Amino acid sequence: DTEVTQTPKHLVMGMTNKKSLKCEQHMGHRAMYWYKQKAKKPPELMFVYSYEKLSINESVPSRFSPECPNSSLLNLHLHALQPEDSALYLCASSQRHRETGELFFGEGSRLTVL
Amino acid sequence: DAKTTQPTSMDCAEGRAANLPCNHSTISGNEYVYWYRQIHSQGPQYIIHGLKNNETNEMASLIITEDRKSSTLILPHATLRDTAVYYCIVNNYGQNFVFGPGTRLSVLP
């Protein structure tokens, strides 16, 4: 199984809602990543988890709250978002953080904030 | 900083080889060159990576110049499904993958 699965594929939420994005991989990878991608822009790194611990937070606002319950799962909890947070949110995994090797990406969750 | 420069866009005729250049003049000795592509509305897909030797796999070939300051990704027989944004990334131990703007490749029938 070489897949990274993200759910939901599409999410529409209001600015007062609380929602979560989920990511799952069963490749035994110990590093997992959240990227944000605005239209016609490259992906931008948000968070890195290494061995289920938050390793990097790229100065992301606190309305985005990541969680790594176990080595296969990565969540991104969303609360009090702004319309400018509408984007494609991509999850990725790799064998280990900060080692050479490829990143495996999911198909993304497209978020629209009204 | 992405540390790479790529053309904004390129066209290629279907069935012909697509040659995508990337400049990475500040690459250091332990940095690898990675290529990813992103088909519209999908997640990025790994293509190939290399350190100093040329590499080939079932998707593409990677040619790295001897001074390692530039590289070329070659898709030998481009198809319409190869239309995508292609990202060239340099990365080494201790760094994160930073995506630059990439090259938008259009394969034309």
What would you note in describing this structure?
The complex is a heterodimer of chains A (114) and B (109). Chain A is mainly β and 114 residues long. Chain A is built from no helices and eleven strands. In chain A, strands 2, 4, 5, 6, 9, 10 and 11 form a seven-stranded mixed β-sheet that branches. A four-stranded antiparallel β-sheet of chain A has the order 1-3-8-7, with no helix packed on it. In chain A, strand 4 and strand 5 (44-50) form a beta hairpin. Chain A is globular, with a radius of gyration of 13 Å. By secondary structure, chain B is mainly beta. In chain B, the strands form two sheets. In chain B, strands 1-9-8-3-4 form a five-stranded mixed β-sheet, with no helix packed on it. A four-stranded antiparallel β-sheet of chain B has the order 2-7-6-5, with no helix packed on it. In chain B, strand 6 and strand 7 form a beta hairpin. Chain B is globular. Classes of the chains: A mainly beta (114), B mainly beta (109).
Order of helix and strand elements from N to C terminus of chain B: EEEEEEEEE
Q: What's the end-to-end separation of chain A, in Å?
A: 36 Å
By DSSP (H or I, 4+ residues per run), the number of helices of chain B equals 0
Helix content of chain A: under 10%
Number of strands of chain B: 9
Shape of chain A: globular
Strand order of the largest sheet of chain B: 1-9-8-3-4
Global Rg of chain B? 13 Å
* Span of the ends, CA to CA of chain B: 36 Å
* Low-confidence segments of chain B: none
How many alpha or pi helices of chain A?
0
Portion in beta strands of chain B: over 45%
Strand content of chain A: over 45%
Biggest chain contact: A-B, 22 and 25 residues
Shape of chain B: globular
Order of helices and strands of chain A: EEEEEEEEEEE
Largest sheet of chain B: 5 strands, mixed
* Oligomeric state of this protein: heterodimer
| Helix/strand class of chain B | mainly beta
